[in-house]
Amino acid sequence: MPYGYIGSMRAREGCRDDIINLLLSAADGLRAAGCQLYAVCTAPADADMIWVTEIWESAERHEASLHLPETRAAIAKAMPMLTGEFTRQELTVVGGLGVSS
Fold it and tell me: Considering the entire predicted model, what is its pTM?
């Protein structure tokens, strides 16, 4: 069953674009790790908030991706640029355009 994850993070002032570039640079390796969709988004109403939407083959594949050396390095690099304000929502994916079930 595909696993969905939507999370947000607040960037420190002036750091949003650096974090976005870091998140996007990590996207290439995610497909091999089991990621079907990875979208990094911003909202015009809140310039420092970054949203990430992910769909994975399974929750286990998502969890395993968090332990990859490149993922851990990206997280370590991003953390000083973040305020510590995070949200997360885990989802069961039931279908949709471009979603493998």
Answer: 0.91
Q: How far apart are the first and last CA of the chain?
A: 6
Q: Which two tokens stand for residue 29?
A: 């390796």
Rounded-to-integer distance, Cα 91 and Cα 101, Å: 14
22: CATH: 3.30.70.100
* Residue 16 domain boundaries: 3-92
Contact 36/53 with Cβ under 8 angstroms? Answer: no
65 Ramachandran zone, left/alpha/beta (phi>0; psi -120 to 50): alpha
Overall number of domains in the chain: 1
pLDDT band at 29 (very low <50, low <70, confident <90, very high): confident
**Bridge partners, residue 3, by sequence:** 56, 92
